[in-house]
Amino acid sequence: MVYQFCRQSAHAGIVLPSHGRFVGASSQPFSEYKRRPGDRVGFNWRMPNVQGKRAVRHALFDTNFWKSFVHARLAVPMGERGCLSLFGDKPETHRLFAEHLTAEYRVKTEGRGRTVDEWKLRPERSDNHWLDGLVGAAVAASIQGAVLPGTDGREPAKRGRVSFKQLQQRTRK
Q1: Who has the most CB within 10 Å: 45, 47, 105, 173?
Q2: How far, CA to CA in Å, does 23 sit from each of 5, 30, 148?
Q3: What is d(CA 66, CA 151) in angstroms, rounded to the nearest whole number?
Q4: What is the pTM of this model?
Q5: How many domains does the chain have?
Q6: Strands ordered across the beta sheet of 18-21
Q7: In which domain, by residue range, is 118 found?
Q8: Do 50 and 17 form a contact (C-beta atoms < 8 A)?
Q9: Residue 118 — left, alpha, or beta (φ > 0 → left; ψ -120 to 50 → alpha)?
Q10: What SS3 string covers 82-143?
């Protein structure tokens, strides 16, 4: 149904269906996939070439990686680089959202010489839709070119203090 919607949409040229793949410790990681001509590959996501096939261009992503990525961003202290924060100071405002984000738990698993988080749904919870939505938004940001410093293999630039006067001089140039 999602693929049909994307294919028939008036915005078919910019609407992109996606879905996550379970990549466990014993699975082949996205970084080891063989890139074929026409494939687009990014940070634990890929868009296989579907030219000449009866398929819609789509994105695939490693759900375990991206759930860990989002949860790691939520654990960063407020104001620090890489922090994902929610507005306001009243926890009840975000209670339902928090319930969705905590509907799954991670299990550290080892296999093929690597350790990964595998995410499992808590038996007493069934709604994790907003977690999936947040993960999808993070993947979409990555596809659009958003890069979190430190995740691109380069050292984050050192930031020094800048006076207001220096900032004004920079913006005038």
Answers
A1: 45
A2: 27, 8, 22
A3: 12
A4: 0.82
A5: 1
A6: 18-21, 59-62, 45-47, 40-42
A7: 2-172
A8: no
A9: beta
A10: CCCCCCCCCHHHHHHHHHHHCCEEEEEEEECCEEEEEEEECCCCCCCHHHHHHHHHHHHHHH
